[in-house]
Amino acid sequence: MAEVSAEARIEAPxxxxxxxxxxxxxxxxxxxxxxxxxxxxxxxxxxGATFAENMRLMGFPAEVTWTVExxxxxxxxxxxxxxxxxxxxGTRYSLAADGPATVVRIDGEFxxxxxxxxxxxxxxxxxxxxxESLHRLADLVA
Length: 142
What we know:
The protein is an alpha+beta fold. 26% of the residues lie in helices and 44% in strands.
């Protein structure tokens, strides 16, 4: 298993950050690993919703089929998906008010046989992508 996380304080209220975070039409403007949603984002953002995403991580393209596992508007979005070579990917976005700003944390995990072969490199690449994504998100909502 490889676990990654990144956190940033964004100078905007949680509702504004959440609106951008869950605007799947503009997801690629801030998410550094996203390339596209072949069938669009989830039809309705709700627990149990599924959607496919094309991504690029460590220079390799991958399609992940996601399921929304946890959803609390303006606070938590947790998704889990199946990627290539039996890799299971989990991503959890959490938002917490910090005065007029919002602390955004992204936690991710990768499990599966293929992960053990490249866990260190995957951890480094994914952490860099999460950090870059948070900077882009902050620029868009600030």
